[in-house]
Amino acid sequence: MISSMFAPGPAIARRDALIAFLFAAFGVPFIGWMQDNGHGGLAPGKPLMGLLILLAVVPVLWRRRAPLLAAAGTLAATAIHVTAYGTITRCGLLLPLLFVEAFAVGAWLNRREAVIGLGIVLGAGVVCLSADASAGWDGLTISVPVTVVLWFVGRWARSRASLAARLHERNIELRVQRETNARLEVESERVRLSAELDGLLRTRLAELAQLAEAGSRDDAGETLAQIEAESRATLEQMRSVVGLLRDVDAATTEPQPTIAHLQALLLSEKGTHAHLSVTGEPRVLPAGLELTAYRVIEHLLNATGDASDVDVQVDFQPDALELRVSGPARSRRQADGAIDRARERLALHHGSLRSETVEGRTLVTAALPVLATA
């Protein structure tokens, strides 16, 4: 119990000092100069009697930092004042002070210490009313229920604060877990892309070896030309896969973009006249799928012209995510390159893409199966 009384809590705040000052400003003149003269009027009291009541008021400074110490200090000071000056009117000052301390012991202490604190506060109330000229023992019918109610209010406030703290900690844990899951998703995609690059190299090198063997028997010039063409195609595919790996590696050190970032992407790429619409039932998708959807939209925006009248639609279907981008057509070479990059990324998730150009506008529709990435 002694350790609980002196256990460090929140530092003394300005509101603690303000509460103590208000009680002191009221208590010193009330106790020292404005006592009942026994005939229904007020008579000058003893200044020292008013100053001594400060011993009961000062402990309220520690009502949050050391609630048990504050309650015990007020009890001791009340007993000293009653012993020194006998029966006078103190309830107007001490009972509100004890109500404040009852709430404090309920709100800032564990259950066992809070029960002990409630007993101390009730004891101080009994000592006060045992020698009170105005309320007397009848005052217990009011002071005890109010003290107990305020103690329970303090316990309720403590439980609410504890619940809020646990929820905050849980939210932090969930955020950390989600970031970890996102990193694992990105790492899984990087490993898959690396495996695909390895398989691509093995297949292409085997094909080139077969061409070289055939060239030793047939026309070498024609074979070398075919080897050159195949080598260039292999290099282009490697560049595409390495580019995807670079995107994934960057996502491991920076916050990876998701579907929620599409509005900002549209604003930066096409300006304020571009339009984004979301249909279906929006929900959180696997991190790798959301990253792929963002990158596909990014590629498809490059397939449209520089004019700002671009429409992007994201449709959350039960088993798929459908992406539609329409806008002014660009040159065929630029549009085909952007669409091919989007198609390659979609292929990693078993997605599909179709595009068409009608009356100078390009319309591209991409579909990402959700179950295939689960």
Task: Describe, in plain words, how this protein is organized in 3D.
There is one protein chain. This protein is of the alpha+beta class and 374 residues long. The chain has three domains: 2-134, no CATH class; 179-253; 259-373, Histidine kinase-like ATPase, C-terminal domain (Heat Shock Protein 90). It has twelve helices and seven strands. The protein has helices at residues 2-6, 14-33, 47-52, 54-57, 67-85, 91-108, 111-130, 140-215, 220-253, 262-270, 287-302, 332-347; strands at residues 35-36, 42-43, 275-280, 311-316, 320-328, 352-358, 361-369. The chain has a five-stranded mixed β-sheet with strand order 3-4-5-7-6, with helices on one face. A two-stranded antiparallel ribbon has the order 1-2. Helix 11 links the parallel strand 3 and strand 4 (311-316). Helix 8 packs antiparallel against helix 9 and helix 11 (287-302) runs antiparallel to helix 12 (332-347). The chain is rod-shaped and about 120 Å long.
Question: How is this structure best summarized?
Answer:
The chain is an alpha+beta fold and 374 residues long. The chain is 65% helix and 11% strand.
